[in-house]
Design a protein that fits this description.
single chain; 151 residues; alpha+beta; Nuclear Transport Factor 2, Chain: A; seven-stranded mixed β-sheet; 5 helices; 7 strands
Length: 151
Amino acid sequence: MTTTRSITAIASLAAILGLTAGVAEAKCPPGLGKRHPLQVVADLRAALAAQDWEAVACNYLRTAFLIDDQGFHIGPEEIVASYVSYHDLFGGAQPLITEEEAYERVVRTLYQLDGGWVVIEDGVDTYHIANGRIRFQTRHGLLTFTGPPPQ
């Protein structure tokens, strides 16, 4: 029952954002498959900073998944919903990248994120890239609450 409600809630959010796999695929610019893994991650970061959720979805394969401290997010719609949640929690703050490296089709990014009342001091994202898009990603960051949420 909870799973059905969760799927319904995610589907509703995706509909509100106008993100379905077909729509996200149809609106993606040509040539994405030729990008180097570091370029994919840079493009993802730029789309996140611009709050361009369709462009965020374009950086993921339709079959992509993200594993983070909240669980599995399967497909671009759920992944984007996860990013929207982070954006809201951190008040739109952007991560400070402290280290980034690539090995073949894998990119590892270390970061810090300060939302004023909540911080991540030791965040890490790992991306596996296939055909110029993210195939799967892991994300971990210990949230530390430093004060009450903004009013």
